[in-house]
């Protein structure tokens, strides 16, 4: 994977934060609605010359965070969750405006962010450490003790544009629960939801120094992640940026969610209606800008034609358009540049012999849900993450071939399998090389409490509130030597 040349769409996804913003006035970046280009806000860019001041504030935040009891951390997180729930429609409308998600999708993301913060509050109260049974080892009968979970100190969090509220909550919630301070660098394409979340945490009682927000591009990011004060970098985004962070970071913990190219296997004994419905949603949710979105569907040949025809028919019913219109199913991509890149990737696959079944029409940043079949295995569309409303159908002759084709890719987050056989389901769970295997569900299912992360190239660390909390804390052992009873 490291030597792979990224497709146009993958390159756009990896670099879009750094190249698609015009600056206005002195040190400002405009935030635009991806559907109509309307300006909805602006943010101050953090100059490189301010990095020392940023780090000084972050060190103050680290000490403030350490001084918060577990009860205080939990109260802040629960309080912020309650405020977001109370203002849910306002948060959802902001997500629609800056990220282009449909209203239904934005409302779901807002509800998930509330849950993420509440799970984080529970972790602050619960996950404090445990007793170590020293006396279980011969020669240590006179010892007793425990370990605690202590904060790492200062965490740099770099977040993407596709889930501008909940993915920020997945960084901030566990970090605050663990007693850490955070340097947050949100996507320049969608910073407003992140800023509103930070303001809400402060309103709920978090000392304002605990989270320091910086806005900028690659140079600023490199300076932040390289700072010795930063003890962990939590990053969600593209492979190229992840590799650059790994080179810059030095000796610190890294947790990275670098995307995927999710396969879903549909076997002949599956409930085809359920599989079609789930896979259409999994492929086109958030205009396909989803790291666990269904991209490659491997269908057993005996039911391939029936599945294909039903899938295409269902896809054609999806309405692409204004995300603020409640009737819209698929909104715009994050920018016209991203949509042009997706279109170019599909053009390349068609030139290589793929067959178009529906879609592949672009109107500005809108790219219609697109279905192809017979995409060559060497095509960029087969081997790389499209991060667009594009799905590939492929007939296979056996379960074994389906698993082999699913595992061809050098990186993986989620996979799915539809089958009526418990034996086949359990075999798929064992054989599929993925961080999560969804049985009778598309790859696009995620519950915010479950461990979440990738397999194979570039995979390190796990999100999911408890698991991120444990990544962001460190055990301290206390051992008391006393005379044996």
Automatic annotation (TrEMBL):
Under CDD domains, the record lists: ALDH_y4uC (cd07149)
UniProt keyword terms in alphabetical order: Oxidoreductase
Q: One MF term from GO for this chain? A: lactaldehyde dehydrogenase (NAD+) activity
InterPro entries per the record? Ald_DH/histidinol_DH, Ald_DH_C, Ald_DH_N, Aldehyde_DH_dom, ALDH-related_metabolic_enz
Q: Where is the Aldehyde dehydrogenase domain?
A: 30-478
Q: Name one Pfam family in it.
A: Aldedh
Ligase among keywords = no
Q: What is stated as this protein's family in its record? A: Belongs to the aldehyde dehydrogenase family.
User: What's the protein name?
Assistant: Aldehyde dehydrogenase
